[in-house]
Design a protein that fits this description.
With about 325 residues, this protein is an alpha+beta fold. It has two domains: about 1-85, Phosphorylase Kinase, domain 1 (2-Layer Sandwich); about 90-310, Alpha-Beta Complex (Aminoglycoside 3'-phosphotransferase, Chain: A, domain 2). The protein is about 50% helix and about 15% strand. The chain is built from eleven helices and nine strands. It has helices at about 1-10, 50-65, 90-95, 100-115, 130-145, 155-170, 210-215, 225-240, 245-275, 285-295, 300-310; strands at about 15-25, 30-35, 40-45, 70-75, 80-85, 175-180, 190, 195-200, 205. Strands 1-2-3-5-4 form a five-stranded antiparallel beta sheet, with no helix packed on it. The chain has a two-stranded antiparallel sheet with strand order 6-9. A hairpin with a 5-residue loop joins strand 1 (about 15-25) and strand 2 (about 30-35). The longest helix is centred in the C-terminal third of the chain and has 28 residues, at about 245-275. The chain is globular. The N and C termini lie far apart (about 45 Å).
Length: about 325
């Protein structure tokens, strides 16, 4: 905090008042700088310096594509401090309800399409190895460490076969697009001008077409009816001009969701067990529900659904 305040004294924001804005699942912290009617966000990445260069890089890519990412007003890359445009305090999660979600999600889908026009060259590739690495977090952190299981040979085989099938189907859909990787109701904002502001994108990768779509529509923090989710997903397909049947596209979407939610079961468990952050435990039941219900729909993953239903009950 002292280093941050010392640096602020060297900037045009030295007379601004500092207040806590928010923290995220990482070690970054956010402060609001206020002077009369003017506000800005001070991002403190001093405990996670490695995330700063990707944040600067991805911000530039998104802004070039016309995405509403926060503009950077000042920076101290050596210490890990940035001063950013302030999007306010209104998250999608705060305003989503039964009457607003279709319009809000339709607008967010348009933002995903903009993001997919961003330059994805040289971003890390979401390849088979990485897809499996992420899903393997469930076995280690959720099944073994949180639930205390030791998998027998049959369970190991079920898990292996299912994860291989998920990986193959995820990779069968169009690839090589910009992937935010965490595009959900807590990382999408409504600015004071009613624009969609995109945050927390420094872990972006080059990957599958439906990743950000499923992050949005099958959010780990809020749930809507399957019928409505399918209609919104297919509207993305239509807006993107994809030549895929309803059945094919929804299978891409569902298997991408399986990959993401299997990973998230591991991540939420790790945040609790390793990092002492228990706030995400309340979101495990919905995440598990997504996995079991989706896996139950397809022959390739019905055994996985049965296994998870058995061990998590």
């Amino acid at each position: 905090m002292d280093k941050m305040k010392s640096w602020l004294l060297t900037t045009e924001f030295k007379d601004y008042e500092i207040s806590v804005a928010s923290a995220d699942a990482s070690f970054r912290k956010y402060y609001r700088l206020t002077k009369e009617d003017a506000t800005f966000i001070l991002m403190d990445s001093s405990l996670e310096l490695s995330s700063l260069a990707p944040f600067l890089d991805v911000t530039a890519r998104l802004l070039s594509a016309g995405v509403k990412a926060p503009k950077i007003l000042d920076q101290n890359a050596q210490e890990g401090f940035l001063i950013l445009e302030d999007f306010g305090d209104v998250l999608f999660l705060d305003v989503l309800n039964d009457s607003s979600f279709k319009t809000l999600y339709a607008n967010a889908i348009d933002e995903i399409l903009k993001m997919q026009n961003a330059d994805a060259k040289d971003l890390p590739i979401y390849d088979a190895k990485f897809l499996r690495f992420e899903m393997d977090l469930m076995k280690e952190w959720y099944l073994e460490k949180k639930l205390g299981l030791t998998l027998n040979a049959r369970q190991q085989e079920t898990l292996e076969d299912s994860l291989n099938a998920i990986t193959a189907i995820v990779l069968s859909q169009p690839q090589n697009v910009f992937v935010h990787r965490d595009f959900h109701s807590r990382n999408v904002m409504l600015t004071p001008k009613g624009e969609i502001g995109v945050i927390d994108y420094q872990d972006a990768m080059n990957g599958a077409l439906t990743y950000d779509l499923v992050s949005l529509l099958k959010d780990c923090y809020v749930e809507y009816e399957r019928e409505d989710v399918e209609k919104l997903a297919l509207s993305f397909r239509d807006k993107a001009g994809l030549n895929a049947s309803d059945e094919e596209f929804l299978k891409w979407f569902d298997f991408m969701g399986l990959q993401r939610h299997i990973k998230v079961l591991g991540v939420f468990s790790r945040l609790f067990l390793r990092d002492g952050k228990d706030g995400y435990l309340k979101d495990v039941p919905l995440t598990l529900k997504y996995v079991v219900e989706t896996a139950s729909r397809y022959d390739e993953t019905k055994a996985l659904a049965a296994f998870l239903s058995e061990v998590a009950s």
